[in-house]
UniProtKB/TrEMBL annotation:
Gene designation: purA
Record's protein name: Adenylosuccinate synthetase
Active site: D13, H41, K142
TM segment ranges: none
Cellular location(s): Cytoplasm
Sites where the protein binds IMP: D13, E14, G15, K16, N38, A39, G40, H41, T131, R145, Q226, T241, R307
Keyword GTP-binding: yes
Reaction catalyzed: IMP + L-aspartate + GTP = N(6)-(1,2-dicarboxyethyl)-AMP + GDP + phosphate + 2 H(+)
GO MF annotation list: adenylosuccinate synthase activity; GTP binding; magnesium ion binding
UniProt function note: Plays an important role in the de novo pathway of purine nucleotide biosynthesis. Catalyzes the first committed step in the biosynthesis of AMP from IMP.
InterPro entries with a match to the protein in the record: Adenylosuccin_syn_GTP-bd, Adenylosuccin_syn_Lys_AS, Adenylosuccinate_synth_dom1, Adenylosuccinate_synth_dom2, Adenylosuccinate_synth_dom3, Adenylosuccinate_synthetase, P-loop_NTPase
Length: 435
């Protein structure tokens, strides 16, 4: 039995979906523990593309159980839409294959309106880059103890009472602060009642289920959304998401005891990307030829929003932060193939701000924005590596690049991805196998 957590080691979009999909073949349970439909996992299986926003990507395996934990915020219509899309592709999901925690909070219509209104009111330099899907306001209500939970849909009188109380404040904010129309509680309840009826068979206690699985000797895989530098407590605040993206969130977001976690794998691209606003010390200008190469060869557009991702060199400062904050036991390096054809590669080893050296991301957001990255240069390679399945078969320059990543990041690679397809991966250490 083993329990493995997969986290993003950068700013998200590192390719967690592919790694989770690959590791799912060894797992019995796959658990999503934070975030909402502001995240997206894109998978390519047998040449077919799948995009998931809420359903754990392990759902593609028909003998696995998927869990949406209490730390996730759920847009009920989006979730049901994903299940309908899967059914249309021949993947029928029943309650034996998917459990939704009754403690997961619901994204309500007013959350989306407030999210978009707040972001729209910010000046360009202060915009967070939110997806506008209501995730932040939903987490605010959760922490403010006025949120509605998935379990409330099973008790409509309770749901209506909580909704009516919430709308008193929300309608005041929408109308008085943002000039929006007020919302009607009856109309919202009528919208959610059939959604609740469809979701009801899937709703249960995720913590109890996972504890039973652990005691039965099952393998459990926890998949995070976004990345370490977007963690609300440990990232480049306020340019972060609204949940804990680090490995500790796997425990709080699912009700799983931390002493039962056996391995934490951090996913990092062989370069760095970021979506939305905020500091990005290794960013390359949009018009830069290498930045354009990473953008086009890496297909760097968000799975959720379609937004262009900002691209830059690999940042070992960011990854070292991820090693410390998550207790990483291994790295999964993705998109190594995207670097093919570049004559020289650069790795950021440290920052400087006003003459002061930083081996970590500065806590002060102004200093983080001013951070200048300092680089080491390594030779690139021209050989096509998409068909390579053994580390020894990579070009010497590619192996040297991976070794320097390991030296600077202070953690060894467990996997190396050399293409988009599920099988285009070099497995160096399976975290589900005993040491």
């Amino acid at each position: 039995m083993a329990s493995v957590v997969v986290v993003g080691a950068q700013w998200g979009d590192e390719g967690k979906g592919k790694v989770v999909d690959l590791l799912t073949r060894y797992a019995d349970y796959v658990v999503r523990y934070q975030g909402g439909n502001n995240a997206g996992h894109t998978l390519v299986v047998d040449g077919k593309k799948y995009v998931f926003h809420l359903v754990p990507s392990g759902i593609l395996y028909e003998d696995k159980v998927c869990v949406i934990g209490n730390g996730v915020v759920v847009d009920a219509a989006v979730l049901l839409g994903e299940l309908d899309d899967l059914a249309a592709q021949g993947l029928q999901v029943d309650p034996k294959r998917l459990l939704i925690s009754s403690g997961a909070h619901l994204i309500m219509p007013y959350h989306r309106l407030l999210d978009q209104a707040r972001e729209g009111a910010l000046s360009s330099g202060k915009k967070i880059g939110t997806t506008g899907r209501g995730i932040g306001p939903c987490y605010m209500d959760k922490v403010g103890r006025v949120g509605l939970k998935v379990g409330d849909l099973l008790d409509m009188p309770l749901f209506r009472d909580k909704l009516a109380a919430a709308l008193e404040e929300k309608n005041f904010m929408l109308t008085k602060l943002y000039g929006q129309k007020s919302l009607d509680a009856g109309a919202i309840a009528a919208e959610f009642e059939p959604l609740g009826e469809r979701l009801a068979p899937f709703v249960g206690n995720a913590s109890v289920l996972l504890d039973q699985a652990r005691k039965a000797g099952r393998h459990i895989l926890f998949e995070g959304a976004q990345g370490t530098q977007l963690d609300v407590d440990n990232g480049t605040y306020p340019f972060v998401t609204s949940s804990n993206t680090v490995a500790g969130g796997a425990c709080t977001g699912s009700g799983f005891g931390p002493v039962h976690v056996d391995a934490v794998i951090g996913i990092a691209k062989a370069y760095t990307t970021r979506v939305g606003g905020g500091p990005f010390p290794t960013e390359l200008p949009e018009e830069d030829a290498i930045g354009a190469h990473l953008q086009t060869q890496g297909h760097e557009f968000g799975a959720t929003t379609g937004r262009r991702r900002r691209c830059g060199w690999f940042d070992t400062v960011v990854v070292r932060d991820a090693v410390r904050l998550n207790g990483l036991t291994g790295l999964a390096i993705t998109k190594l193939d995207v670097l093919t054809g570049l004559k020289t590669l650069q790795l950021a080893s440290h920052y400087e701000v006003a003459g002061e050296r930083y081996e970590r991301m500065p806590e002060n957001i102004r200093k983080a924005a001013q951070a200048k990255a300092f680089y080491e240069s390594l030779p690139g390679w021209d050989e096509d590596i998409s068909g390579v399945r053994e580390l020894a078969d990579l070009p010497a320059a590619a192996r040297d690049y991976l070794k320097r990543l390991e030296d600077l990041s202070e953690v060894s690679p467990a996997m190396v991805s050399v293409g988009a397809d599920r099988e285009a991966t070099i497995m160096l250490k399976n975290p589900f196998e005993p040491v």
